[in-house]
Amino acid sequence: MLNLTHLTKSLAAYGPQYNKKKFAACIIRLKNGDLKAALLLFSKGKVVCTGAKDEIQAAYLSQETVRILSKAGIKAVIRDLKIQNMVVSVTLPWKVNQSRLAEDLSWYCTYDPNIFPGITIRHEELTPITALLFESVSTVSFINLKRRVVWYLRD
Predict the structure, then answer these.
(1) Mean predicted lDDT score pLDDT of the chain
(2) Residue 10: C-alpha distances to residues 73, 76, 98 (Å)
């Protein structure tokens, strides 16, 4: 088990944030060029890296985590690097008519503008990916990607 209070003190140069009453992890924010990431270090030794834009950045963040932990005297080894979730956003070159789309795809969609401003599209049989479509900015966000997937969008 990691002592997150001790870890926070040991890694003070990285500006870690830890308040066990608010969140169960020590958070270290990293910025390197266009990469803005956060490392979530949990007391049981699990590390979650957020902010990577591709698999290469995820691998880099994992190695960077090992390097940072070694500065605190913690020997870390990457045993299982697994991409859990990728979020991809695309701005469409046309307007989305949410009401019509929700009606046409009613068996895949959830849409109630009083609860959430976007259409949630899920088709569990084809893919576990969730798509969120927002009319105001014509943006589609794909959530729960575990690998690269090519989707073709057309109006």
Answers:
(1) 80
(2) 9, 15, 51
